[in-house]
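User: Fold both of these, please.

Assistant: Here is the first one.
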Amino acid sequence: MNLGLKLDGVGFAYDGTPVLQDINVSIPAGQFVSLLGASGSGKTTLLRLAAGLDPVASGRLSWNGVMVVGPSLERGVVFQDYALFPWLSVVDNIEIAIAKAKPTVRKADRQAEARKYLRELGLEAAIGRYPGELSGGMRQRAAIARALALGSPLLLMDEPFGALDPVNRARLQDLLLEVWELATPRKTIVFVTHDVDEAIYLGDRLLVLGSSPGRVIADLQVPLARPRERRRLLDSHTLQALREQVAAALVEDTLQRLKAA
């Protein structure tokens, strides 16, 4: 079986305007892919297509060899705005996700499993609190806990740390990597970000989208050993080389669009 996420000639248009065009990407199961690109390049649209929230206009999009035709528990999504139910406690938010994935499991057992996920993400003290009582970083950890609780082998993450301060952002980057690296089997992750350093620190691979319409303009491997060490990475020649490759791809794309205008 062809395990992983595969896009063959995928395109999408909005009100007749092409948003994505001829996307050909294969992401093996267990890979962490960082998705970069300027605003308007279609990064979020690509995630929505992979999640089954929008239908592709052309081409074929499949997960583990099966065409994506709608939402599924196989593919979890984490948005920047947390998307927690404000009227439920943190533990109840997680328990609802488990109930979707395991409807025959007793509520007491689902609650116990929800507490386990919250402990793993450092939220044990917030179990009985409500989303409005939490900091932004804590709410995002709860959103990640809920996505993990669904048991989805594919996680689609749309700038989940974009609204956080640098300290909390770094903490959640490390926490996400720890959870991902310790999981057996590892989940496949597609992570949208505008931050090149974040993309490199987290990813096995960088996909860069150009815009008007969105298409892959660079597909770069990140040849850095895991586990990653932040201080060592800052001094890495590999980091600088990847930064330059991403910047060069985006500049070239901009120049081509200006010539075509």
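And the second sequence with its predicted structure:
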Amino acid sequence: GIFEPTEIQKSMLGHFFGSSKLDLLIKSQPGSGKSLGYIIMLLSHYYANISNLKREPDGMINCKYLIIVPSELLAKQLVNWLKELSQEKSCNSPIVSALCETFETVTETPVCDFLISTPEAFRTKLSQGCVDLRGLEHVVLDEADALIKPLKRFASARQKEARLKHPVIAMTLLNEMMKTISANKLFHRPRMIVSSATLNRLTRDQLISSGIVKDPIFFEDKKPIVTRHENLNPSESKVQHFHSLLKDPEDPNDLVKTLHKIVSSNSEKLGAIFLPAAQSKLGLCELLKSFPEFSKYSISLLCNFKPGENSQNRILIASDVDCRGIDIPQLEYVIILDLPSAVENYIHMAGRVGRTGQASGNVYTILGTVEDLNRFTS
């Protein structure tokens, strides 16, 4: 049902299939189609370069296109997209495998065309000597800032020391891959595609200075990601942003009452509640199910939701980490519990609604203290 590329997809496709084969850095607001764009790019590249030569399986993991993602939820989504977009070309359909901590199909088909993996799982296999990098042509870093986690420019000496002792796994993995590739003349350097709605300068600089990305083309859309409600252009996204302050953040009844007010004002719609990673998703599920006000609602974890399932009066519970890159077309409102730890986190949580082809949605933030309210409104 998609007939025209978005502006960012036009830019991506133009640069990808242009005369130069430079690395790409992509920044665009949530829901603008970045992930779908690079999936289409890579599938088009795959079909244009199908080779009849197939290497014999030797038990080693080998792929042409490696997509590194921060969560299993996003990995599953991309696997489904790749299979759905290629299912009509059954005679030459690409082999798609996944490699995550609890979701793994690569053992069945170690020689594959597309491999979607979390950095921890892929690094484990690499360190065990189970990966052959010879056939690797493209590497995608989706939600790159969540993978790289760059230190702030004014990080303290203590923070820098802690980072040296405990480096980010994705950076360790990428450095090890590049070292292996550069040391072996049989290998060629893969093209890097780096994408995120919050692809900041710190992330870009770290990838370039470490040699993981070389002489890249950087492009972004110039649309504001969060616009004040009174200045919204009718032709732009019609996402509305609301916030409220709990009377007593220690009283679960107060939270449940506030949540019910929001949910009931979005009757029969599919909604999601995002809470900090340190808080229990199952605990919130059980809390809401214990109140009669929520008896008519189906409450479950986002990771258990399958596209196409009945979404009326359904509430999905997830952490702020889970939401990165996830596309749920039926989702019409989002509730954010507590002050997000960073503006970028708010952007990603709010960005689950008002996506391409959807245009509208509501975002509600529930705050616990006056200090949080002051920070949020500023």
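The longest strand covers residues 238-245.
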